[in-house]
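Possible regression after last week's pipeline update?

I re-ran a chain I had predicted before the update to compare outputs. Posting the input and the new output here so someone can diff against the archived version. Not blocking, just want to make sure nothing changed silently.
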Amino acid sequence: MNIEVTSETGRLKAVIVHTPGREISLVNPDIKNALLFDDIIFEDDARREHLGMIDLIKTGMPEGGKVFEIVDLIRECFREENARHHFIGNLIETLPFENLHTIESDLHKLDEESLIQFAIEGTTPALRDFILLPSPNLLFTRDLAAVVGTSVVISRAAMKARIRESLLTETLIHHHPLFSTIRKNAIKIDSGDSIEGGDILVLSDKIVLIGMSERTSFSGLMNASSQLLKKGVEHVLIVDIPKQRSSMHLDTIFTFCSENECVAYPPAIIDRRNNVVHLTLVNGVVCTELRESLKSVIEELTGREYTFIKCGGEEITNQQREQWSDGANVFALAPGLIIGYERNINTFQALEEHGYRIMNQFEFGDAYRDQRYVPGKDPKTAVHFHGHELCRGRGGARCMTMPISREV
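New output (post-update):
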């Protein structure tokens, strides 16, 4: 498979997801904050909603499109002794406070299923007396890595609760055959810094946006930016966003719908000025320039006019409510074909006012299950799906998907 992503909206050919499992049910009210959850989630409903999203994605993909479950990839990876050794060694080194060195020999004796269970759920019957907190955020595969052109940025989680996810992703990229063609182009930042995939948006093969958020540190994004510029990216736009829970990543307040349309949360994107730093590489040196606004700089660099569609519509209360419930976090299956949570009714109304046909997941399935959606021929379409339980995890359609291949 050709692993390459050169835009946010190129037709989706392959994506990695994680359907919620038992790790979700291991979150209780006493530990939910430590695990970065605002609420506890009912596993069965969340799973049903996620499977509905996957069915919707498959319907919108071209013939031969692939949806990979990350646990399946981990399982295939852990069948190789070198991969298991890599993961266990990194786990012990990265989490010294967990005293995992005391069970190192036991970890190496685990079969792949038990090691997966321990890595994700924090416990396994094979290690009855050793328990870690679960990793329920694996649901948000977007944050684990970002394919940029033919390179891949391996995320380094900012929060302790997500460190095991970063280690699993690094193991996959270094050992799974799926990533063999881009392994040599892997970008990794130093420990102590952080960068997460939700802050990385690929505008084109030459232009990348990176959010400076509560989850992506300044030194982390500068390190990644420098490496991207040396690998062929010509422009990196650093977008300074509010360092708060509601806007934890750039994609929680800004996403692309088509080649020249975006959904944006007005207070943090449309109304902000002088919050974008333009990075370029000149004679091997990274140069910086402060730019007035995100809209003006991407229009200048692409030579196209962009429409910023307001998350939540015109009313500020609706904007705030729907940004909180991931109204700005839409995911493009193709140029002009996007999906998002049904509860964000004002955002979908704004999309309709900008020429989008609005469909629910079942209408879209009926219309395109036996014939493929054709970008440019079929109408621009925004499809909403059930996500009332998933929404409690504070992540939308883009957060729950890691594209690894799009049509160029």
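Follow-up from reviewer: compared with the archived run. The mean pLDDT is 96. Marking as no regression found.
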